[in-house]
Amino acid sequence: MNVIECVPNVSEGRRLDCVGRLAAAVESVAAVQLLDRSSDAAHNRSVFTFAGSAAAVEEAALALVARAVMEIDLRTHRGVHPRLGAADVVPFVPLGEATMGTAVELARHVGREIAARFAVPVYLYGEAATRAARTRLEDIRRGGLEGLNARMRDAAWAPDYGPGAPHPTAGATVVGARGVLVAYNVNLATDRLSEARAIARTVRESGGGLPSVKAMGVALEERGIVQVSMNLTDYNVTSVAQVFDAVSAEAARRGIGVLESEIVGLVPRAALGGRTPAALRLARFGEPQILERRLADSGLADAPRSE
Predict the structure, then answer these.
(1) Least buried of 17, 53, 244, 270, by fewest C-beta within 10 Å?
(2) pLDDT per residue over 39-51, tens digit each?
């Protein structure tokens, strides 16, 4: 079975009624399985995971974007996570026998449709990028929507599709194709944001740390703590266990304890690196968050893969 997974990140994690309507938009496509949804109030962000055939996933992705553009106004949006748009990032992931070429073609087609239907500028990233400078999501998103708005005055930062300025309420959307990514956070027993940022710099690849790891430090003000928020872009290169150990060791060196860690969305079993959830201090984690389990339960039994 050729299965495409889509993992959109939208800029709403507090109005759960709105998040419910976004999920309903995905579920309105009968041939798609909504595997997971996760909302974070501090990040003010929700992540949806759904899968199916390329055609069905395209329909569901466009339905989700339509609802996000309708309901989310970035002029009033606040959150600790950088963002460019109401429908912020829309990545397509090939699973099982599906090819990256199929995911790239799908990303580019969906990007064109988003621009045409909603007048939202679209940038392509990852394997779908048309320019080397846009391969990495963080390079496109640097400075958030405000930073992109300024850069868009330069012809080099014209969008791949759509108008040459952000949508007044929905901003811009980044659409791409990539391998399986693991979103992983470690919460620290301190309120010092400078410490979380320093640990993030130490463990991320761009700072000379762990390969295939992106990291930033953020404050969870409502809890009075800070977090090292990470993306593992290839769990075969660096596992969750290795990241947990590195963050824990660096925190201990600074005299800081680790409260807990968390997976956002779904995770391949192998990404845990052979550790139990308890050993990784994973909070609110259960077997339904294992990607293989959710695919099997949904009748989509393709094995995950990393590109």
Answers:
(1) 17
(2) 988 889 999 999 9
